[in-house]
Amino acid sequence: MTDYVLDQEHEHEPISLKVVVEHVSLNQRIPMPGYLSSTFPEFIISRDGVPTQGTVEIRLRQGSSPEYRSLLVKRVTSSMTGEWYVDNLNPLFKYDVICQLEGFNDIVYTDITPLT
User: Fold this and answer.
1) End-to-end CA distance of the chain, in Å?
2) How deeply is 94 buried, as exposed, middle or buried, from its count of CB atoms within 10 A (0-12, 13-18, 19+)?
3) How confident is the model at residue 64, as a pLDDT?
4) Reduced to 3 states, what is the DSSP secondary structure of residue 20?
5) Amino acid 42: pLDDT
6) For the chain, what percentages of helix, strand and coil (3-state, to nearest 5) are there?
7) Contact 6/19 with Cβ under 8 angstroms?
8) Which 8-state DSSP code applies to residue 24?
9) pLDDT at position 47, please?
10) pTM of the predicted model, to two decimals?
11) d(Cα 69, Cα 61) in Å, to the nearest integer?
12) 38 and 107 in contact (C-beta within 8 Å)?
């Protein structure tokens, strides 16, 4: 049995189903049930204990192909209350969550599994 990628770039090119699933999910072509958000303990962006606006990067930590490691999946800006939400993540993969606030060192949470 031959599997095909459904996008124009790989149309009709044989490729393994494992790679197809990762390719499709990384390019967010099909909905995925996983999400990460500021509701996870300590994921609210804060300065001196007061919630504030900052940047959050979600990077692929572990998927089925090593060449995608550290791939930036999404970058969002939190609200002024430090809250943020990223959906459409593959719950079978692990991610790094990098919280950034200008003038401060980044806070990195590694090997995070999305909630479903």
Assistant:
1) 31
2) middle
3) 62
4) helix
5) 67
6) 15, 40, 45
7) no
8) H
9) 87
10) 0.68
11) 5
12) no
Give residue 69's pLDDT: 76
Measured CA to CA, the distance from residue 86 to residue 15 in angstroms comes to: 29
Mean pLDDT, contiguous 10-residue spans, the chain (116 residues): 40 43 51 87 79 94 75 94 93 93 92 92
For residue 38, count other CB atoms closer than 10 A to its CB.
Answer: 21
Strand order in the sheet with 72-77: 72-77, 55-62, 94-100, 107-112
User: Looking up tokens 């958000």, which residue turns up?
Assistant: 37
In DSSP terms, 40 is beta-bridged to: none
d(CA 51, CA 60): 26
Tell me which DSSP letter residue 115 carries: B
- With a CB cutoff of 8 Å and minimum separation 6, the contacts of 8 are none
